[in-house]
Amino acid sequence: MPTPPGRISSGLPPLDDAARAHATRVYRHICRHIEASGGWIPFAVFMDLALYTPGLGYYAAGARKFGSEGDFVTAPEMTPLFGRTVARQVAQVLEQVGGDVVEFGAGSGLLAADMLDELERLGRLPARYRILEPSAELAQRQQQLLRQRSPAMFGRVEWMATPECLGSPAAGFRGVVVANEVLDAIPVHILVWRREGLFERGVALEDDALVWQERPAGQSLQAAAGRIGTVATDAGLPYVSEVSPATTALVGSLARGIDRGAVLLMDYGFPRAEYYHPQRRAGTLMCHYRHHAHDDALFLPGLQDITAHVDFTAVAEAGVDAGCRIAGYTTQAQFLINCGITELLAHTPAEDIAAYLPQATAVQKLLSPAEMGELFKVLALSRGIDVPLLGFVDGDRIGRL
To answer: CA-based angle 341:343:345, to the nearest 5?
Structure first.
């Protein structure tokens, strides 16, 4: 089995020997799958292998991913005020229904730590704080951080690799499910609309290199494209975009597991009409490596994050089909403002510049339309809750879904 060629996307930091050796192992693993599948795999399969193969995939191996020493920074790494603000929404739901908090894909563990601190301060600690983390390596990092940051809370936290703890409404789950920047990393299928018809873009091997290759889209993807509708005129072809049956299946599973409570989904994306706008003809696929964003998804696999924006209309439909109602949909900026992030910031005296300035800078990035405030959205699905949710009292955008 050959080693991957020294393909480096322009402008990205160079690889050290350990990184290149790891990428070679992942590359060989993917090559075996391609050969066993007749020379071609859908991109969704490639993305799953590159991100989640045990011991090899990006989220399953040991490299640091989050924060300044990793590949990207998420909101909890920017400021504890993010987690504390989200906790206010969680506290409102817990006040109504009691029960547990389940965080899906807890990343570095900082969101859990900050939320637990604030929930304790508010007197609304859940019966249990459960973390659904498929990555054993990330679970270990989360356990280490929470043991250090919140030793008094550590005994309240449980880890599990699958969502069986939610069960079904008959099992009586009550509480809140939280997922921050999880849906964007779920594998997607890439569709290409051409004059000749609809194609699925996948990955093949050519001269020992991973290459793009298209095949006519199957029946299920044809049906998914039909739900999207017409996205481009002949003048706009070819048109490339993504669909994620795995995302809607996951959201449906989470929503069905709720007896009384809410599912809170935070990520970057658009409602369907914006996601599949004719002018967005190159799709939304994006990769992150050492704080460099680029669109070369076939760059040495296992070393970079691969993401796609979220179709929030499809996510909302999956929740409704599972028996939940749409309790709110808005921008991250509006959600955080509604939940009181500026009030929390004001607790740090502005004259204490060393403490105040970093927090104010981070809050500005979270709220600014030019940063994360507009691109990131928050969607809430609920069952058995009649009161308006705090995070959506102003600026709700349900009508845009």
So the answer is: 70
